[in-house]
Structures are given as structure tokens and as C-alpha cells.
Design a protein that fits this description.
Shape of chain A: globular
Oligomer: heterodimer
Number of domains of chain B: 2
Radius of gyration of chain B: 29 Å
Distance between the termini of chain A: 36 Å
Number of helices of chain A: 12
Structural class of chain A: mainly alpha
CATH topology of the largest domain in chain B: Rossmann fold
Largest interface: A-B, 51 and 61 residues
Radius of gyration of chain A: 21 Å
Number of strands of chain B: 22
CATH class of the largest domain in chain B: Alpha Beta
Shape of chain B: elongated
Largest sheet of chain B: 7 strands, mixed
Number of domains of chain A: 1
Strand content of chain B: 25-35%
Number of helices of chain B: 10
Number of strands of chain A: 1
CATH architecture of the largest domain in chain B: 3-Layer(aba) Sandwich
Structural class of chain B: alpha+beta
Helix content of chain A: over 70%
CATH superfamily of the largest domain in chain B: P-loop containing nucleotide triphosphate hydrolases
Helix content of chain B: 25-40%
Strand content of chain A: under 5%
């Protein structure tokens, strides 16, 4: 009997055991649930596009509509984008691709626990799989957007810089950051539903005040806010590398990348510590 | 800290304890708004390793499970019973690791599996086949394991070619059968079961019970929550009875079931007293004015008023009434109903008059107060809560002078477990034909 798995449930584990022993559990959970995460992703993916005429094309429509909105706003002269040397569609779509990675990622992960409903209350499984799986659809639509970018390159006869190949790699920091924040927002949304609604509102606003679809102004409130916003750096840097091969804000970008790792790890641990609280409140 | 605890547990001589629950409590909040605030504060405290003082109740909180301790040894099956809201499901959820206890500690040896939510996690748009894989994954199986069990699952669920149709086209029966089939085909070391054996038709239920019996051979321990006392009797070795979150009995099944039935009776009696108070002014009592019914109740063998009678004793009811005018002849009707509103006994005082050619004794009444005593010689009514209807009528004209419907309930106590209305102690014989 002694060599058997011994499970202990008691209150206030973090105080009794310390943070480090938690990582053993987290790694164990992650190993155990990799296939589950894949299955949950497949479930959401298949379910999302079943009983729908357009199916996967929806993943294309949403960024295109956002793009069209900005092109319309620009051409009607409602807002000025500054001096941009590449076709605006390419410029905006490259920036939006990373921004959307953040937006859809955070929205889907925030709702991932709440939408699981009774499953959470009845079955004990690593809940992190729900959060991770919620990124599946986000990544699929990211890949589709990159496909559209290629089409635009061909359409305009534009040749990107060779550093464009780093694109997938550069998605990593923003994914980590989003996933980390998603861990926290999913838990909070499990307790207070207002968060899910606030997010939809706040993210649209955030997009307008973040200089992604237009050049960053030299001074003013938007410039100040952008300077302290890691999402700004993480969204525009890949585009700069793809188009020009250089970074305009290297320091901000590297700090943001470096920050994304501890933020992700801390939030992951916080999630692990508090996931059982959600079943109580959902 | 935890290491020391583990060693302490393993070094004890009772090596065969599979589940140990030590002074476990769990609190919940009654108000949704407070629950949100407490939830956020608990989460923040947990993350930053500040004690959330789980052992204290905050305003609006209550103990859903309160200081429960028990052990389940290797090979044992423990049943949990209790009235609704007693904390059974909360306790089972803690054993399953879905809630953390707020006080105390739970130690389990071996992989835990639960037969709790049948079909939770099913996606209606996906086919039965796809759902088997997803549900299996959620329940902790790997692909190979599901591949191996796939045929068994389909065969057990008996859903035929529907396996490749979306689950939303399934009938309710097919849906739960498939869910149950997945859950029961997992072979965990510690099995938790919550009220799922009432799934499907009788033949499916029997199939499930047979599978459960097989599972018991393989598992280390089973914890089983049910309302079906028959299942409890046949499956479990011991029973834990919960009432309002506390452990009121842990051990022998027959004793436990009697305790449980007592608790249920008391609870219903309390509920009825509340409604009775409301109803007292209403429709229950009617009088024409010529007769007014006064006190009524139960008597013991010595004529003292009592609240509850014993199963083995005689049952004696009394009714007091006052005649406001002279009446030539009266008949009395008494009917006794049990908790399920079944009329268990109904007697008219003139029932035997013609048959037995006996002189009817309730004639020529003068004004004044009377007490009617009705004695049943050991009626063998099973322990339950009973209520009586009582009426005083005129046999010649059919007039009703006064009647009470559903009078104040009384209890028949006893340590026999009850299944029917009367407990008649039959003898059983079996002969080959």
C-alpha cells in the first residue's frame, strides 16, 4: 500500500506546503492533461463550426471586418494614421493579427471556466486544460490571419523582410502574457460575472487608444499610455520586423517579453491554488 | 509539514485504511453577493499565502458539513444517507477533490473515480463516438485506455447505430445510458457514487447494479450516496448518516436506516407544524355550532396525553367536544393518513351496528362536554408521521355537526424499518413445485 499514490485535501495548502511543492503538482497535472487539452480543443473547434454554413470561414470574417472598419475610418479621413510606407491593409492586418491574439485569447479564456458549468462542479480534472484549450481556436484564427497577410503580399506585390520568418516565434511572449492574464480573469469571472461583460467593452476601447492601426504620435496621452503598455510593444514589434527588419522600441519590447514569463508563471500558480474555489462559486 | 503528516499516516498500524476523513468541515454562504466578495478575498489570500481563516464563519455563512470524521478500510463500501441539504453531496465533492475542506483533512490512497455526473461535459453537437473520447479524457483516461474500453462502453450503453449521430438527437434515456456507461467502465481504485443508479429502465438499472458488484471486487473502497435504502442494504457494509452537516451515525446499516428515518420524520413534523399554524384559522376545522370540538390527541395505556406512540403498543386517540343542544344520536368517523397521504385506517362508529345486532351506544346525548376514546389494539402501523380526520355526524339525517381535516400530526416511533403501511411479520416458506 505504501507505494500507492497518496492524495491529501486540506485547507490553505500554499501556507502549509509552500509555493515550490505546488510546481510539482502543476507539472504533473500538465503531463496528465495534455491529451485532455487536445480533446477539449477539438470539441470546441468542431462544435464551434458545426451547424454553421460558413464554418471555419468565420475565423476569417471577424478580422476582415475589423480591418475593413479601420480602412473605412482611414479613407473617410475620420482619423489620421500618420505616415505609413506600406499598403495600409498589410500594415493594419499585421498589427491586428497580434492584437487579436490577445483579444480573442483573453475573451475565450475568461469564459472557459464559466461555460464548462456543471462539469466543474461534478468532475475532478485539471481545470487548466479548459484554459489552455480555449487558446486553440485563438491560434487557429491567428494562423488564418497570417494566411490572409500572405494573400495581401501577393496582391500588392510586396516582399516582406526575411525576419518575417520569426513571426510565429514572436507570438510566444504575447501568448504567454495573454494566457497568464486569462488564468486570472477566468477565475475572477467564475466569481463575478461582470468581468466578462467589462472585457468586451474595455478591449474595444483599448484598441482605439493603442497605436496599432495608426502610427504612434510623438506626444500626448495616447503616446504616454502606449509607452507603459506591454501589449503595444508586443503587437507592433513583429510587424516592424516583418516590414522593415528593425525595431523602433527595442527596450520596451525586450522588457515586455521578459515580463511575460514571470507573469505567466505567477498567474499559472495562482490559478492552480485557487481553482477549487471556482467550483464553490459557479 | 505535509511530509510529516504522510509519514505519520503510513506508520500507523491500520495500513488498510483507504479513505481517512478527519474532522472535516465546509462552509458556504447563503447570500450570492456576499459569496462574491468572500470568494474574491479568499482567492487573493490563497494566492499571496495569507490565511483566509477558513475555520471561522463570516456573516451569512453556515457549515454545510460540520466536523465529520470516518474511515473506509480496504474492500469496504460506505453508504451515506441523510435528508436533503444534509451535506452528502458536499462531502462527496470534497472526497472527489472538487472542494477543499475548510477545516480538517482528507487522506485517500489511490486514484479516485466518481460516478457522479452522468453526461457532464457532453457536447450536444458532437457524435456519441466523439463524446466518448472527450468524456473519457475528462474523467482521466488516456487514448489507449479508451480505445481498449470503447467496445465495452458502446455495448453497455446499448445505443446501436446512434453512436455516430450527434448527442442532441439522443433520447434522454440514451443520453444518460451513454454517460453512465463511460463512467462505469472506468476502473478506479476508489469509487465515489452519487445517486446515479436510478438511471434508465429496470433492465439497465439491473445491469448497472451487476457491473457495480463486479467493480466492488476490483476497487479498494466505495463511497455511495443514495436515497434508495434497498441499494444501500445490498451494496454497503456500513452507513454514515448525516443531518444538517453533522455525522449522527456511522456504522451498522439497519441502525443507520432507523436513525435516518427518525430524522426524516422529525424534519417533516417540524415542517408540518409550521404549515399547521398557518392553516389553523383556515379550512381545517368546521362546525355547525351545535357541537364544538375541543382538545384531541394521543393517550398512553394509563390515560396520559402523549406526543408519540410506540410501534409495539396500542394506539389510543381521544377527542373532546361540547354539545350545545340535545341530540338524539351521533356517529363518529375517524380516518388516519400516513405521510404519503394514504388512508391507512378509516372507521365509523356505526360500522358494526347492523351486522353484530349490537345496541348502538351513542344515543340520547345531553348538553355538556364529552371525551371520546378510540382504541386500536396494536394496529402495527409502521413508524411514520400520521394525521387524522375526525367528524361528528347525525346518522339519521346525514347532517355534519363538526369536522376536523388533517388534525395536528402525531408520530409512531419504533426501531423497525418501514417499507409499507403495516408491518405484519409474515412467515416465509418456499416449496419446490
Amino acid at each position: 500500500m505504501d507505494e500507492q499514490e497518496l492524495i491529501i485535501y486540506e485547507p490553505e495548502r500554499s501556507i502549509k506546503r509552500g509555493y515550490f511543492s505546488l510546481w510539482k503538482e502543476i507539472i504533473y497535472d500538465t503531463k496528465q492533461s495534455s491529451w485532455l487539452t487536445w480533446q477539449l480543443f477539438l470539441r470546441d473547434f468542431k462544435a464551434m463550426y458545426s451547424q454553421s454554413l460558413l464554418g471555419v470561414i468565420w475565423a476569417l470574417i471577424i478580422p476582415l471586418v475589423t480591418l475593413a472598419t479601420f480602412i473605412l475610418l482611414k479613407s473617410s479621413g475620420l482619423f489620421s494614421v500618420g505616415v505609413i510606407e506600406v499598403p495600409y491593409a498589410i500594415y493594419a492586418l499585421l498589427g491586428l493579427a497580434f492584437w487579436q491574439l490577445f483579444v480573442t485569447g483573453i475573451v475565450q479564456s475568461t469564459n472557459s471556466l464559466v461555460s464548462a458549468g456543471t462539469m466543474l462542479k461534478k468532475i475532478n480534472f485539471p481545470r487548466q486544460a479548459l484554459v489552455f484549450a480555449s487558446f486553440g481556436n485563438t491560434i487557429v484564427s491567428f494562423i488564418i490571419q497570417i494566411g490572409v497577410v500572405f494573400i495581401l503580399f501577393g496582391f500588392y506585390g510586396f516582399l516582406p523582410h526575411w525576419r518575417f520568418v520569426l513571426f510565429p516565434l514572436m507570438a510566444l511572449p504575447i501568448l504567454l502574457l495573454t494566457c497568464g492574464l486569462g488564468f486570472i480573469t477566468s477565475i475572477i469571472n467564475g466569481v463575478i460575472r461582470d468581468l466578462g461583460r467589462l472585457l468586451g467593452l474595455g478591449l474595444t476601447f483599448l484598441l482605439f487608444i493603442t497605436p496599432i492601426t495608426y502610427e504612434m504620435p510623438e506626444t500626448g496621452l495616447i503616446a504616454t499610455l502606449a509607452r507603459i503598455n506591454p501589449l503595444f510593444y508586443l503587437s507592433i514589434a513583429p510587424r516592424e520586423l516583418a516590414l522593415a527588419g528593425t525595431l523602433s522600441h527595442p527596450l520596451g519590447y525586450f522588457i515586455s517579453c521578459a515580463l511575460s514569463i514571470p507573469i505567466f508563471l505567477f498567474c499559472w500558480m495562482a490559478f492552480h491554488l485557487t481553482e477549487t474555489r471556482i467550483a464553490e462559486r459557479i | 509539514m505535509s511530509l510529516r503528516n504522510e509519514n505519520a499516516l503510513l506508520s500507523k498500524d491500520d495500513d488498510d485504511v483507504v479513505i481517512r476523513v478527519e474532522h472535516v468541515s465546509k462552509k458556504f454562504s447563503k447570500s450570492l453577493n456576499r459569496s462574491m466578495i468572500y470568494g474574491l478575498s479568499d482567492i487573493a489570500r490563497n494566492v499571496f499565502s495569507v490565511s483566509s481563516k477558513p475555520d471561522r464563519l463570516r456573516k451569512g455563512e453556515f457549515w454545510a458539513v460540520n466536523d465529520v470524521s470516518f474511515e473506509v478500510k480496504k474492500g469496504e463500501c460506505l453508504g451515506i444517507i441523510g435528508p436533503n441539504g444534509a451535506g452528502k453531496t458536499t462531502l462527496l465533492s470534497m472526497l472527489n477533490g472538487i472542494y477543499m475542506p475548510d477545516k480538517g483533512k482528507i487522506t485517500i490512497k489511490g486514484k479516485t473515480g466518481a460516478l457522479i455526473a452522468v453526461g457532464a461535459g457532453f457536447h450536444p453537437m458532437l457524435t456519441g463516438r466523439e463524446n466518448i473520447y472527450i468524456n473519457g479524457a475528462i474523467l482521466g483516461l488516456r487514448k489507449k485506455e479508451i480505445d481498449k474500453k470503447f467496445d465495452d462502453i458502446i455495448e453497455f450503453a446499448d445505443i446501436g447505430e446512434f453512436i455516430d449521430s450527434p448527442v442532441k438527437f439522443y433520447s434522454t434515456g440514451m443520453f444518460v445510458r451513454l454517460g453512465f456507461s463511460i463512467a462505469i467502465n472506468i476502473s478506479p481504485e476508489v469509487l465515489l457514487i452519487d445517486e446515479v443508479l436510478s438511471v434508465g429502465d429496470l433492465s439497465f438499472q439491473n445491469k448497472s447494479l451487476r457491473r457495480l458488484a463486479e467493480l466492488r471486487e476490483k476497487t479498494n473502497a466505495v463511497v455511495f450516496v443514495t436515497h434508495k435504502l434497498e441499494h444501500m442494504r445490498s451494496i454497503c457494509d456500513r452507513v454514515l448518516v448525516l443531518d444538517q452537516g453533522t455525522n449522527i451515525h456511522c456504522g451498522d446499516i439497519d441502525e443507520g436506516i432507523i436513525k435516518y428515518q427518525e430524522v426524516i420524520r422529525e424534519k417533516k413534523l417540524r415542517e408540518q407544524k409550521v404549515t399547521q399554524q398557518v392553516d389553523n384559522k383556515g379550512l381545517i376545522y368546521r362546525s355547525s355550532g351545535e357541537i364544538v370540538i375541543g382538545n384531541y390527541g394521543l393517550l398512553d395505556n394509563f390515560g396520559n396525553e402523549i406526543n408519540a406512540a410506540n410501534f409495539a403498543d396500542d394506539l389510543t386517540l381521544f377527542f373532546e367536544f361540547e354539545l350545545k343542544s340535545i341530540i338524539k344520536e351521533l356517529i363518529f368517523n375517524v380516518a388516519i393518513f400516513n405521510q404519503k397521504n394514504v388512508k391507512c385506517m378509516a372507521d365509523w362508529s356505526n360500522d358494526e351496528r347492523n351486522k353484530m345486532d349490537r345496541k348502538y351506544e351513542f344515543t340520547n346525548f345531553q348538553k355538556g362536554k364529552y371525551r371520546l376514546i378510540l382504541n386500536y389494539k396494536n394496529p402495527r402501523l409502521t413508524p411514520d408521521i400520521y394525521q387524522a380526520n375526525f367528524a361528528i355526524r347525525n346518522p339519521l339525517t346525514g347532517e355534519t355537526y363538526a369536522k376536523i381535516k388533517k388534525m395536528r400530526p402525531f408520530v409512531i416511533k419504533g426501531d423497525v424499518s418501514h417499507r409499507g403501511i403495516v408491518k405484519a411479520d409474515p412467515s416465509w416458506k418456499l416449496k419446490p413445485l
